[in-house]
Design a protein that fits this description.
Blueprint: E1 7-9, H1 13-43, E2 47-49, E3 54-56, H2 59-85, H3 90-107, H4 113-125, E4 131-133
Antiparallel strand pairs: 1-4, 2-3
Length: about 140
């Protein structure tokens, strides 16, 4: 029976903290989606979704969108903690969070185009989080 290979994230601790900070700020920005959608749901005001292709004032739809924004906000904060801690699974969680956020941002266009751009950047950054095996060779002493 072989023991599992221990892994580490590919980027430096400082880079992890910087990336985690960007992700946490993006998660906090999701709070705007919660607030806006709940306000629209309470007031019965319509929202333009999918770049104006769908206009709805349905309180259930808008409340569901607020919940999704909130869940993604919490998930982004969780990803930040995982990245700072160097947990190898952080990359997969980031891929799920950024992809889900991108889908929600596209659904909320044109109110969330900046968030869509950030999510694309986060998906690209996830490549730098590829886990690598921990070794005890001379190559590690750089």
């Amino acid at each position: 029976m072989t023991s599992p290979v221990r892994t580490s994230l590919l980027i430096s601790p400082r880079a992890r903290v910087a990336l985690a900070g960007i992700i946490a700020v993006h998660g906090v920005a999701h709070g705007a989606g919660v607030a806006v959608n709940l306000a629209l749901a309470r007031s019965g005001t319509s929202a333009e979704l999918l770049g104006g292709w769908w206009v709805t004032g349905n309180g259930t739809v808008l409340t569901a969108m607020a919940v999704m924004w909130g869940v993604l906000a919490a998930l982004m904060v969780l990803v930040s903690v995982l990245i700072v801690a160097g947990v190898p699974a952080a990359r997969r969680v980031l891929l799920v969070a950024a992809t889900s956020s991108l889908v929600l941002c596209v659904a909320s266009l044109w109110a969330a185009e900046i968030g869509a751009a950030v999510d694309i950047g986060l998906l690209l950054a996830a490549a730098s989080l590829a886990p690598r095996p921990l070794t005890s060779g001379a190559c590690d002493k750089q």
